[in-house]
Specification:
mainly alpha; 16 helices
């Protein structure tokens, strides 16, 4: 097997931005036909991303600068890159504002929701750079995903969602789209690294659903489309696996489920982009992505950094 790793690094990052930018138009809406999402893409002059991609950019910049994950550096970049117009959630706003006021960067996330921390998908939506950076070492990938999540999301279910998403991206990098993908084995491999029962249960649901033509209402009922990590990360994985032959189809499907559509789109786009690579992403979508050249440059620098360490 021979794959273009640089293309996959670029695909994972711009895939995040494209899914995010398309999905922001459907956030909070109910499900629609996937063709509606494709039409939105055609009619859009520019795909403007949200905080999902903004935070992904910051994480990539931090990995490059620190030559690996450094929590304090990433926390500082979250503060530096903060732009409330991007649509940050209330919990993220609270944490980032607290990070600005204290050098104890490990503490603010722990204080959310009565001290339990957040189990939202905010740390999962930005995690693609971790999956790319450590795609060839899944144990290390898992550890970095956990550390990365805990800067803003400390609840075990929020952390586990980020880990599952990062692992999905990492596994996708190593697969050759010309050969197709063994969906059952992909799910089995992910399950080996997952500890929380709710995620294991949803991976089993994906295993049973992915080979069938399932009504979207059942997908939403069984896997979810909400802001909770366990109700969106498995959904993004299913959206990719059930439409793995085509980037456009996988992202359009994930967004078409509605709910937290920008984040499901971003996560689906990250996995599918890491699988298909830059060349597998439609040119019309790539050309419309906000700050496309910057994101591509960061992906290449991330790969260069990986080679140097």
């Amino acid at each position: 097997m021979s794959v273009d790793i640089e293309s996959k690094f670029v695909g994972g990052l711009i895939g995040t931005g494209i899914g995010d930018g398309l999905g922001r138009n459907r956030e909070g809406y109910s499900m629609v036909d996937s063709g509606k999402i494709v039409e939105i893409g055609k009619k859009s002059n520019k795909l403007i991303y949200t905080d999902d991609t903004q935070q992904m950019i910051g994480l990539t910049e931090s990995l490059i600068h620190s030559k690996g994950f450094d929590g304090k550096d990433f926390a500082n970049r979250l503060v530096q890159n903060f732009d409330i117009s991007r649509g940050y959630g209330s919990g993220a706003i609270q944490v980032i504002r607290s990070l600005k006021d204290t050098s104890e960067w490990k503490e603010p996330a722990k204080r959310l929701f009565g001290g339990e921390g957040s189990y939202g998908n905010g740390s999962s939506m930005r995690i693609a750079p971790i999956g790319l950076f450590k795609y060839d070492d899944l144990e290390s990938l898992s550890e970095l995903a956990i550390s990365s999540s805990k800067v803003t999301h400390t609840h075990r279910l929020g952390v586990e969602g980020a880990k599952l998403q990062a692992l999905s991206v990492g596994l996708a990098v190593g697969k050759d789209p010309k050969e197709g993908i063994d969906k059952q084995n992909f799910i089995k491999r992910l399950s080996e690294f997952i500890d929380e029962n709710i995620y294991l249960e949803k991976l089993e649901l994906i295993r049973s659903l992915v080979e069938k033509n399932i009504d979207k209402r059942k997908v939403i009922k069984d896997l979810g489309n909400g802001v909770e990590a366990y109700n969106s990360v498995p959904t993004a994985l299913y959206s990719f696996l059930s439409n793995s032959g085509n980037f456009r189809d996988s992202v359009a499907y994930g967004i078409s489920l509605g709910g937290d559509a920008d984040t499901i789109g971003a996560m689906t786009g990250a996995i599918s982009g890491a699988y298909h690579g830059k060349k597998g992403i439609p040119k019309d979508w790539k050309s419309k992505l906000e700050n496309k050249d910057k994101i591509i440059s960061l992906a290449k620098k991330l790969m260069k950094t990986k080679k140097e360490i």
